[in-house]
Amino acid sequence: MPLTATLEDIKAYQQKVEKNKINPHGLGPCPRCNLESLFFKLHAYRERRFLVIVDMLVKAVFCTLVRFRCTDCGKTITSYPDFAIPHKHYTRQTIEGLCRAYVENDQKTYQDAVMTDDGVPERAVSGRMLAASSIHRWIGTLAELIRADQDALKKLLQEKLAAQLCRHLGPIQIPEKKHKTSHRKGCLLWCRWFFKIQAVLKNSAFTEFAIRSA
Ligand SMILES: [Zn+2]
Known about the structure:
Layout: H1 7-18, E1 41-54, E2 57-69, E3 76-79, H2 92-103, H3 110-113, E4 122-123, H4 132-148, H5 150-169, H6 182-200, H7 205-213
Parallel strand pairs: 2-4
Antiparallel strand pairs: 1-2, 2-3
Helix pairs in contact: 2-4
Bound molecules: zinc ion.
């Protein structure tokens, strides 16, 4: 995974903003009054500074973010591009990549995590190196976001799994010659469905299921 959003990513988003291509439809409902986001109106443009890493140098690049306003209660909501995390200047890829390097490797210290294959990124202007304490702080922020949003995350996971399962299963049919009654047809369809999902679950699903039912 690249350690940063690229200048191209940010430029592409800036062009979308300038061509009025950012709409509120992907946003959730208003957090204050629950109005659907498709009723939001454009409110303001705000310039934000992002920090990207180019050849181990941290460079500042500006990009415009769009704010929408809830037409019911007046709350303003910022639309964030995929590379942005609210209140953070480093891009999502950097924050995610470095936090992950620390969290997923039992041997890594914060000091190790800030050290990439090519060295420690440093600020283009001041020459100051990316601090290990930044990763410590980011992990705190990330955990807070996850905790606050855990229900939404679980829902997302369920939806993704259900969609994957549907794709995997396809339509289920049973030939006419195998049944004389619609009741028997139903039994066969249920079983065929069960054996298909068993491949997705695991081999012992039948035993587990039988124990649970008993
Ligand atoms: Zn509202």
